[in-house]
Amino acid sequence: MEALTRDFFLFLSKNNFLNKLAQNSGGNFAAGKIIGGTNFQSSIRFIRELNKQGLSVTVDHLGEFVDSKEVANERTEECIQTIEMIKKENLDSQVSLKMTSLGLDIDRDLVVQNMTRILDTAEKNQVMVTIDMEDVPRCQATLDLFKQFKEKYHYVSTVLQAYLYRTEADLADVSDYNPFLRLVKGAYKESPEHAYPEKKDVDENYKKLIAQNLLNGNYTAIASHDDQIIEFTKEFAKKNNIPNDQFEFQMLYGMRNKTQLELVKQGYKMRVYVPYGLDWYGYFMRRLAERPANIAFVFKGMVKK
Ligand SMILES: Cc1cc2nc3c(=O)[nH]c(=O)nc-3n(C[C@H](O)[C@H](O)[C@H](O)COP(=O)(O)OP(=O)(O)OC[C@H]3O[C@@H](n4cnc5c(N)ncnc54)[C@H](O)[C@@H]3O)c2cc1C
């Protein structure tokens, strides 16, 4: 039944008619619930609300797998303006982006050009830019780009996925760069050739990676809604004298709001991932596919709790 529901929402996520309808509706349904707004400007008031509650933010302009140079360049321009606005508005926010949104599927040089402009701006404004990790065919290219940028820039970080067999070796590989790393379970549908098919193995590997990265002395963002992972991190940090300022928790906007605030109260750094943009419909359906119970907060207005 669970698999059926998941497949149903994934099917809906790819429906062009519903996607267009959602874009035309202006995102009012989702704004302030699962996305900030349909553009960065309209997301600012929600980011401020989060900041006021002690929550840090990272923003992400929705829409990956860009297949035209013009759109990739527009994305770059928009990202530069977002970074400048974060600084100007004095927001406690970073930026997350995907290499495919800057043209990875078109031309690697285009991504390098676009990212160089973005990271020059990030460095000047001291705003961290995290390169989200995408699916397996883009993983090596993403890591190679990260390492290339990290040679020159401080304000760049990336993500590693616990469901991939390769990640332990990748963690060792990037460790010398003293990276700020976000560790996640992994969001894409990958084959058993590349990824652990069983949740319990993903969870075990996740804990191993968190422990390793913390012991390496590198800053670690644990991006998970899973209590078991959060408790593991807290206990591991305590036992190994890892200071609270060497790690942070991250969750998606609108998910587990009470837990987010509870973690802040306990003295942990908590960052909320706030997506924005017209392409909110597919994002929403993918969240429902992950956890159909998420639909409840939309209808019950649970987000205000
Ligand atoms: C900030 C952030 C950034 C991310 N970046 C990337 C990325 O770059 N690349 C990538 O591949 N993936 C990324 N992800 C997605 C990630 O890989 C997972 O797919 C996603 O977070 C679901 O896994 P989970 O660890 O939250 O726990 P799950 O395994 O989905 O859930 C475990 C348990 O947590 C509890 N739980 C989960 N959600 C809720 C909820 N809403 N309310 C109450 N309880 C809940 C339930 O008990 C559930 O059984 C990101 C996730 C976050 C939060």
From TrEMBL:
Enzyme class: oxidoreductase
Names of required cofactors: FAD
Keywords (A to Z) from UniProt: FAD, Flavoprotein, Nucleotide-binding, Oxidoreductase, Proline metabolism
UniProt-listed Enzyme Commission number(s): 1.5.5.2
Keyword Flavoprotein belongs to the record: yes
Recorded metabolic or biological pathway in which this protein acts: Amino-acid degradation; L-proline degradation into L-glutamate; L-glutamate from L-proline: step 1/2
Keyword Transit peptide part of the UniProt annotation: no
Domain of life: Bacteria
Domain Proline dehydrogenase intervals: 47-298
Gene3D superfamilies membership: 3.20.20.220
Pfam family, one: Pro_dh
Reactions listed under catalytic activity: L-proline + a quinone = (S)-1-pyrroline-5-carboxylate + a quinol + H(+)
PANTHER family: PROLINE DEHYDROGENASE 1, MITOCHONDRIAL, PROLINE OXIDASE
Protein name: proline dehydrogenase
